[in-house]
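Following up on my earlier thread - several people asked me to post the actual chain instead of describing it. Fair enough. Here it is, all 280 residues.
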Amino acid sequence: MKQSVRIGIGILLILISIQDLVAASAATWSNDSKFYIYWGYNRGWFSRSDIHFEGDGYSFELSDLKATDRQSEFTFKNYFYFEQWSVPQTNIKAGYFINDRLSVSLGFDHMKYVMVRDQNSNITGSIHVGNSTYDGDYQERPMQVTKDFLTFEHTNGLNYVFAEINRHDPLIERGKITVNSLLGISPALLRPRTDVYFLGQHGPNIFHNAGYGINAKAGLDIRFFHHLSLVTEVKAGWINMPWIRATANGHDRAAQHFGFFQANLQVGYVFGFKKNQEKP
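Reply from S.P.:
Thanks for posting it. Predicted structure:
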């Protein structure tokens, strides 16, 4: 087993060395001191989550809840009209190359999180709000989470505001087309608008600072004529939101944490102000 591990590490180091040699020979165009801006769309997948609700007359937790993203219908109006820019699950990012290989960026991922309706869960805690159907004390009691009890969505949206550091490695260059690998990591602020309906009461559905997250990513940047980019990337991360506004009462809140996986497709433009961009 130890021998296999050593062989595997050796092969990995050889592959990294080969990649660096290929990257060094392929790179004839400098990214140094350039800016970029990307725009695109995402798909999201979420792990199961326990959600805790606390407020006047209730404190309970629903366990192991499932959720999905919500894709907008693909129409020209939904995806390409400027006034509809915030309707689909959108990605926006702008950044700056510190040098040829490293860049920093600020961005905004507009994801959507929808708790699956009518799913089965276990409830633990107490509800005493004067509701004849649901008032009571619970200890891991099975229940079906129906619409009249709870609707819970971050649909406008699960807004992931991040600061990112990226590594870019050139892999292939063919004339005016280059392919670069991308690796990155970023912390984030979660600023959702959460749509909650709980026992006849609607939540405020306002933007608020609900928590934080972190993610790592990997992808490919296909560059055309040194400026136009088509970027594909995947992200995997973790989100913790302990301060979700669940009702109009400012003291009530919900809390949850979960993992997420995201696939993105973006187009972008890279630009700079230096005259001599070709490497010698």
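Helices lie at 2-26, 76-80. That should answer part of your original question.
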